[in-house]
Amino acid sequence: MLKGTVDIVQFIGCCFRWENPWLSLSVLMTTIVVIWNFELYMLPFLLLFFLVRNVIAEYRQNRLKKSDDSLDDDTKSNTVQPTSADEEIPDADINTKEQKLSFLGVIQSIQDTIMEIQSQIDNVASALERIKNLFNFTVPWLSTLFTILLVLVVIGLYYIPLRYLIIGVVIGEFAKRFGKPKGYSPNNELADFISRLPSDTELMRYQELKVLPPSSTRKKR
């Protein structure tokens, strides 16, 4: 599941960077057509389509499996069983070594997956803490700027249809690459804005230390 999500994100990034111009152009045109013609009832219809497709695929797979099993039974009855002299003697040492190597590979892959999941969980937790500090006015000028942007978004959504706004955002993301230098890598403004906010760990790490007044230090002496 995680690998599939990463592959989808990488594919979207490749389309935005126009690494394959024809693919990016086709994805852009397809996205605009889908958004323009999309209606809310199409979402459950799409889920229903995937369910029916999986049911049909499983039914066909079961039929093919039954036919293969019947063919295997026929071939087994017609073939002559080999004698014990012709059978190969398995090497126990090689089998145990292969089992150990495969077991170590499974453990290593599990450890890598756990580390990747842990890093993703840490990133999500840090982002949620930054969003919480945005609403808590931990950095006042960033929270004020966010409030102004929210007011503008409310006005825009009230007067402009959501379909047009989504198409404009998609075209803007695809058009970022034009007019930029060759080694330019587009950035995400929302991610940049959130990264400027501190997380709870950073607030604890960089909090100001209280300086005792000189009078209190003299009394202690």
Describe, in short, the structure shown.
The chain is mostly helical and 221 residues long.
Overview of the molecule:
- There is one protein chain.
- About 5% of the residues have low confidence.
- The chain has a domain of about 30 residues.
- It is extended and about 100 Å long.
- It is an all-alpha fold and about 220 residues long.
- The chain contains 9 helices and no strands.
- Helix 2 runs antiparallel to helix 6.
- It starts with a helix and ends with a helix.
Helix-strand blueprint:
Layout lengths: L1 H15 L4 H17 L4 H37 L13 H44 L4 H20 L2 H14 L13 H7 L4 H6 L8 H7 L1
Helix pairs in contact: 2-6
Radius of gyration: 30 Å
SS field, number of helical segments: 9
What is the end-to-end distance?
Answer: 64 Å
How much helicity do the residues have?
Answer: over 70%
Count the beta strands.
Answer: 0
What is the SS-derived class? Answer: mainly alpha
- Outline the biggest β-sheet: none
Proportion of residues in β-strands: under 5%
The whole-number mean of residue pLDDT values reads 77
Low-confidence stretches: 84-89
The dominant shape is extended
Q: What is the H/E string?
A: HHHHHHHHH
